[in-house]
Design brief:
Distance between the termini: 53 Å
CATH architecture of the largest domain: Up-down Bundle
CATH topology of the largest domain: Sodium/glucose cotransporter
CATH superfamily of the largest domain: Sodium/glucose cotransporter
Strand content: under 5%
Number of domains: 2
Largest sheet: 2 strands, antiparallel
Strand order of the largest sheet: 1-2
Length: 474
């Protein structure tokens, strides 16, 4: 289904065209003369603090249409789902993991799993990370935006989005990814910095929102069950296993940069959350119940209140916010598939990246399939987070904290059991829907059975482990 018709002028199209040209120029010109795995996967470990912040902020905030959807459904309570849990786990990551990761001199999460827990855990972990890092939600959002701009069908829109994202990554690798992210960081803040003043001057301030929104939309916690909140809260633990965070920590020039950079990034995410939440509230107040698809809330609001040129700049603000995550996660999932899965299964040299092009193709096809099967940003996040996070969390966190390590056989069993339990529980709920809503046994979300089973197995192993000398692995 196409987004409702949006009016764009010639100047808007020129601004949008200039954005895509700039992205391609920056991406293609960022290739290093080196041909090493270090340069390709982590830009030769040369990230400075400003580059670290810009690439982390932009790459981890691609779900902007999903945030519009959350706010349109729940008002400011949506912040409790899409922001607060992440702030909590981002702070944990910054204080307890960030600098540890940068000191390892590795390339990926599976490298650490392989070093600590062995090949089986590493390969299964790589498969889970490939699923976790799928760019499917960002591909779906980009498809919606390209529909809005060019009035094409969703399939064509997603193919175009994939092509633009992949072209420069094949040769430029992570260096191209970072430099395009820096450009996108500037554009995403510019876009929302444009729409909010127009909302205020055209529609009104808080009095407008208060007069047109249901009371619960301006009250924290309204309309959200405690169990649903905790399900999303634990999905926020995504941060602790998110490969984009690890990749950027591996890539820093100064080993003290990650902790400082993540805390600075947290400040930028908070500012951007405030901007997107207010834009979402204005959209709900303006359209009330007349908007069929809440994920369209930002672009259709821009169409109604922004003049020419401003509409074009807001459009590229949305595009940059999503594109930054789309190409970053395509690159991560492609290299995970090629280097961490295929090369490790085949026992080939991991200091090469033979299967990068294959990984790009597999990542693109897989994300295209997921975006087609689950046409909702929020639903994609929920399904992936629910199934993958419980299985990855224990193994990844314990690998970086010596006192939490146990024998690899327990970690491997916990990962398999956790993923299987969540998946089976999820399937049962999907097969027993009532009025389109999955009915889970005892009304328990699928994440919990997987997490609990994994923890039980982990603590059995923890109780039986043999304490070795400091610095030795188990």
């Amino acid at each position: 289904m196409l987004i409702p018709t949006i009016s764009l002028t010639l100047i808007d199209y020129l601004i949008i065209l200039a954005y895509f040209i700039a992205v391609l120029i920056i991406g293609f010109k960022s290739k290093s003369s080196e041909n090493s795995v270090s340069d390709y996967l982590i830009a030769g470990r040369t990230l400075t603090l400003p580059a670290f912040v810009a690439t982390l902020v932009s790459s981890f905030y691609g779900g902007v249409l999903g945030i519009g959807e959350f706010t349109f459904r729940y008002g400011i309570s949506g912040w409790l789902l899409y922001a607060l849990p992440y702030y909590f786990f981002i702070a944990i990551f910054a204080f307890f993991l960030a600098n540890k990761i940068s000191k390892t001199h590795l390339y990926s999460i599976p490298d650490k799993l392989n070093l600590v827990y062995g090949r089986k855990v590493s390969i299964f972990g790589s498969m889970l990370i490939f699923l976790l890092s799928t760019p499917a939600p960002y591909l779906f959002m980009m498809g919606l935006l390209v529909q809005w701009i060019f009035a094409v069908n969703l399939v064509t829109a997603m193919i175009f989005s994939l092509a633009v994202s992949i072209l420069y990554l094949i040769k430029g690798g992570f260096r191209s990814d970072v430099r395009v992210n820096i450009f996108e960081f500037i554009i995403m803040f510019t876009g929302f910095g444009i729409i909010l003043p127009f909302c205020f001057t055209t529609l009104g301030g808080m009095e407008y929102l208060e007069s047109r929104l249901p009371e619960q939309y301006l009250t924290f916690g309204s309309g959200i069950s405690l169990q649903y909140f905790f399900a999303w809260f634990f999905i926020g633990a995504w941060v602790l296993v998110d490969p984009a965070f690890y990749q950027r920590c591996f890539a820093v020039k100064d080993k003290k940069t990650p902790k400082k950079g993540i805390l600075i990034s947290l400040g930028f995410w908070f500012i951007f959350d405030v901007m997107t939440t207010f834009a979402g509230l204005y959209s709900k107040a303006f359209f009330q119940d007349d908007l069929a698809n809440p994920s369209h809330s930002f672009p259709v609001l821009a169409d109604k209140i922004l003049p020419a040129a401003a509409r074009g700049f807001f459009a590229i603000g949305l595009i940059a916010t999503i594109m930054s995550s789309l190409h970053s996660y395509i690159f991560i999932s492609a290299t995970t598939f090629g280097r961490d899965i295929i090369s490790r299964i085949r026992n080939e040299n991991e200091e090469k990246y033979f299967y990068n092009k294959t990984g790009m193709a597999v990542s693109a096809l897989f994300s295209f399939a997921i975006a087609s099967l689950i046409p909702s940003v929020v639903d994609i996040w929920y399904v992936i987070g629910t199934l993958i996070i419980p299985a990855l969390l224990i193994s990844v966190v314990s690998a970086y904290i010596n006192n939490l390590r146990i024998h690899s056989k327990y970690i491997f069993t916990a990962m398999i059991a956790s993923f299987s339990a969540s998946l089976i529980y999820f399937i049962i709920g999907q097969l027993n829907k009532v009025d389109g809503t999955a009915m889970y046994l005892f009304s328990i979300e699928p994440m919990y059975p997987g997490l609990i089973l994994g923890l039980i197995i982990y603590f059995i192993g923890f109780g039986k482990r043999k304490f070795l000398k400091t610095g030795h692995t188990v």
